[in-house]
Amino acid sequence: MSAPRQYELVYIVAPEATEQELADLHGQIEGIVSRFEGRIDNTEQWGRRKLAYEIGRHREGIYVLDVLTGPGEMVKEIDRRLKVIDNVIRHMVVRVDEEMRVAERRRTEREAAAAVRRVARGLPAEAAAERADEASAEGAEANHE
């Protein structure tokens, strides 16, 4: 079994779908996720929205976002199932863990570069350290009064 990864699943359901049909569809996705020992981290119903372009005969749809963690086989099964469900107009699954890892790496690189610039100017490496020094100095002055 492959390593668990994080995915975002967005699907658009036909606007005439009832709340019960939405709940049943979400239950099917939960069943697949649990079968592959994954988990649903977050579910957001964005509600009924106008589509950017007409899909089939639909001009509106009910959007749902699920953030999933699990193996790639789980995503393949969800994709296969959503393709055959008539109420689902469109769906898309995107792997997001790699993007988050890249963003984290860039953030730490920016922080390191900022620390180098601060040291070159004769300041403490971290701005937080400077603020902490100022706060402790103000606290000490208040105690002396």
Question: Concise description?
Answer:
With 145 residues, the protein is of the alpha+beta class. The protein is built from four helices and four strands, in the order βαββαβαα.
Mind sketching the topology for me?
Layout: E1 5-13, H1 19-35, E2 39-55, E3 58-70, H2 72-84, E4 88-95, H3 97-120, H4 127-144
Antiparallel strand pairs: 1-3, 1-4, 2-3
How does this model look, in words?
- The structure is a single chain.
- By secondary structure, the protein is α+β, with helices and mostly antiparallel strands.
- It has 2 domains: 5-95, Ribosomal protein S6/Translation elongation factor EF1B (Alpha-Beta Plaits, 2-Layer Sandwich); 99-144, no CATH class.
- Helix content is 50%, strand content 32%.
- A 4-stranded antiparallel β-sheet has the order 2-3-1-4.
- A hairpin with a 2-residue loop joins strand 2 and strand 3.
- It is elongated and about 65 Å long.
Search tags:
single chain; 145 residues; alpha+beta; Alpha-Beta Plaits; four-stranded antiparallel β-sheet; 4 helices; 50% helix; elongated
Radius of gyration: 24 Å
According to DSSP, the number of beta strands is: 4
Compute the number of helices: 4
Mean pLDDT: 85
Low-confidence stretches: none
Structural class per helix/strand content?
Answer: alpha+beta
Strand order of the largest sheet: 2-3-1-4
| CATH class category name of the largest domain | Alpha Beta
How far is the N terminus from the C terminus?
A: 67 Å
Which assembly state applies to the chains in this document? single chain
